[in-house]
Write a structure and sequence with these properties.
This protein is of the alpha+beta class. The protein has two domains: about 130 residues, no CATH class; about 200 residues, no CATH class. It starts with a helix and ends with a helix. About 30% of the residues are buried.
């Protein structure tokens, strides 16, 4: 039970960090640097106390009371409708809906347009109420002229831009929900399932079979998984999924691969992905197998312990990039994108080349001393009865705290920018 609790703790650490990255990404997408606050909708929903981002194609905010009960929904027209301009710029309008998804009012959140025009619109008693009672779909399909929605006198361009952006914003989300891709398996998904089956056979099959086919299998990994398919796990992939969602329907084979890479080590202790699927690991092992023994270098204990910290340093850097949107391409930290030759960048190619050259002298050099993805997968791997809470588990908890701090810091900064306490 102690080992199981420790494994669950490690999975919880990874899941919590992924959730915090996701939460920041959703807030950045929906709230940007000008957050909507509950105070702005109190005039329409008097008991509104807080807002919760909606991680769906609607890209809006649930309105909650003090107990967390949903009272309604708010969707903003910007930045989605930034191409719809009024007299002198865009206007960010809030569409407030009740729990039955009926519009109960419009509010002006922010505007780049002429202040006097925006003021005239907010004082107009009819314009902002023209939408009241309409459902989401009805408003998205609304014929503005037939509905009698006309420009506010003296602010015609600005008011009509608001009307057009409200319709366009609701229609965009409605169409995106309707166009959600159903689950589908393409040839490359079936191929990845075959790779998983072959990897399981190489990991758990008869010893004689594994020894006989090991080298041909490794060449096949480099050829298909690396150079042809390019479906490799990497920090770029995991961060992208954390921020934008897992592509269950469009890339099910890759999702199964990632799930197996996490679950198999957790349940069996065998590093399935690193040892049996990763083409870069296979390439390093082949280099070590064919190189003359006299070229092998034996590192001292202190050097090994120092180098083993490097993958964790890269994980910390990845976390900072994921939570702060630093302009750093995470693909350049690892060699995996180098196998997709047509799109590989210089940084990726350099990391790949250095890793393979190092493997000529030190077996599996990159896997041991440079791979953050390998370190992540190894973190959740079961280690048997001798496993204990270690320094890396304590460091992982510190990373959760760092992720929570950066998550809170983002919200605090955008609220400060808006001038709120």
């Amino acid at each position: 039970m102690k080992q199981l609790a420790l494994q669950l703790y490690r999975f919880a650490v990874v899941a919590t960090i992924a959730w915090l990255i996701r939460d920041v990404a959703v807030r950045q997408r929906i709230q940007g640097d000008s957050p909507v606050t509950a105070a702005e909708v109190v005039s329409l929903i008097p008991t509104a106390a807080s807002l919760r981002p909606d991680d769906s194609a609607r890209d809006g905010l649930f309105v909650l009371d003090r107990t967390g009960r949903e009272l309604g929904y708010v969707v903003r027209t910007q930045p989605t409708c930034r191409d719809i301009l009024g007299y002198a710029g865009t206007t960010d309008a809030l569409v407030v809906l009740d729990p039955d998804w009926k519009i109960i009012g419009l509010k002006i959140h922010a505007s780049e347009d002429t202040e006097s025009y925006v003021r005239d619109i907010t004082l107009d008693r009819r314009f902002l109420k023209k939408w009241n009672g309409l459902s989401w779909d009805s408003a998205a399909n609304l014929d503005l002229k037939a509905a009698g929605i006309e420009g506010v006198s003296g602010a015609t361009m600005t008011s009509m831009a608001i009307a057009q952006s409200v319709k366009a914003r609701l229609k965009l989300s409605r169409d995106e929900i309707a166009a959600a891709t159903p689950l589908r398996f393409a040839w490359r998904d079936y191929a990845l399932l075959v790779v998983l089956a072959a990897a399981a056979l190489m990991a758990f099959g008869p010893t004689s079979f594994r020894h006989r086919w090991k080298r041909p299998y490794q060449f096949a990994l480099i050829l298909y998984v690396g150079l042809i398919a390019g479906d490799l796990l990497a920090q770029k992939l995991f961060v992208g999924w954390s921020r934008s969602g897992i592509p269950w329907t469009t890339a099910p084979g890759l999702v199964f691969l990632a799930a197996a890479a996490l679950v198999v080590p957790f349940t069996t202790g065998k590093p399935l992905y690193c040892h049996q699927i990763c083409p870069h690991g296979a390439a390093q092992e082949l280099i070590s197998h064919f190189r003359p023994a006299r070229f092998q270098i034996t590192l001292s204990g202190p050097v090994i312990r120092g180098l083993e910290n490097f993958p964790f340093a890269l994980l910390v850097l990845t976390l900072l990039v994921a939570l702060t949107a630093l302009p750093l391409d995470l693909a350049g930290l690892e060699p995996f994108a180098a196998y997709i030759l047509r799109s590989a960048g210089l940084a990726t190619l350099t990391v790949a080349a250095v890793g393979l050259i190092a493997a000529f002298f030190v077996p599996q050099a990159y896997c041991r001393f440079g791979c953050p993805t390998g370190a992540l997968l190894n973190f959740v791997r079961a280690r048997g009865a001798a496993d204990r809470f270690s320094r890396r588990d304590a460091v992982a908890l510190v990373l959760v705290g760092l992720a929570a701090l950066l998550n809170w810091k983002y919200l605090a900064v955008i609220l400060w920018m808006k001038g709120l306490p």
